[in-house]
Amino acid sequence: MRHPAFLTTLAALALVAACGGSKPAETPSPKETKDEAGITRAQDSINAARQFTADSLERVRLALAAERARADSIEKVRLAAEDAARLAREEAARQSAALRDELARMVHFDVARAEIGLEAAGVLDRKAAILLANPVVRLQITGAADERGSAAYNQDLGTRRAAAVRSYLVGKGIDVSRLDELSTGETAPIADGHDETAWAENRRAEFVIVSGDLPLSMK
């Protein structure tokens, strides 16, 4: 005779077999509670606020970058203008110095002569152009001679040479009141020596700006 517990076990096994060993039903996911939904909405709002702040900061950064770029551009333009003005001043100063040098350039004469030669005429033509472009300038013309001849003769020769230069410039349109005359005769040689080389240097007319020595130009 079989034991009752054994029979009970057999009955349980038979029941399991009859059910085909199917899986137990899944437990449904719990629905989101009202509090949890509120937390989700709050988090979404926080995230949106953070994104708005980030976007605003990026717009500010871009605006500042654009402002810096504009400021840099303005500074570059300012520096370029300053450089251009400085270069213009330097060029004007160089031109003025060159024109003063041209006005101061001497002319020379043949022995015992006061006539304007071809080389002297070219020098005086350039002086006349400068004087016409700078009407406030006044020149002193000093005639000189070498040591040969008497002191009185050389003084007179210096005067005639200064007068010849003055007359030539007046003929080129320079007002006579802007040209002063002076003679040093043989008393102010610029070349030492007692030979033709020194004498040729000393037969001359010199030029000095006596007024209107402003920055000169050819405009």
Structural features, described:
It is a single chain. The chain has 219 residues and is α+β, with helices and mostly antiparallel strands. Helices cover 59% and strands 11% of the residues. It has 5 helices and 4 strands; from the N terminus they run H-H-E-H-E-H-E-H-E. The protein has helices at 4-18, 34-104, 118-133, 151-171, 196-202, and strands at 107-108, 138-144, 179-185, 204-211. It has a 4-stranded mixed β-sheet with strand order 1-4-2-3. Strand 2, helix 4 (151-171) and strand 3 (179-185) form a beta-alpha-beta unit. The radius of gyration is 54 Å and the shape is rod-shaped. The mean pLDDT is 88.
Concise summary:
The protein has about 220 residues and is an alpha+beta fold. Helix content is about 60%, strand content about 10%.
What is the topology?
Blueprint lengths: L3 H15 L15 H71 L2 E2 L9 H16 L4 E7 L6 H21 L7 E7 L10 H7 L1 E8 L8
Parallel strand pairs: 2-3
Antiparallel strand pairs: 1-4, 2-4
How is the main sheet built? 4 strands, mixed
Instruction: Indicate the mean pLDDT.
Output: 88
| End-to-end separation | 144 Å
SSE series: HHEHEHEHE
The helix/strand class is alpha+beta
Q: What is the number of E strands?
A: 4
Order of strands, main sheet, comes to 1-4-2-3
Q: DSSP helix count?
A: 5
Beta-strand percentage range: 5-15%
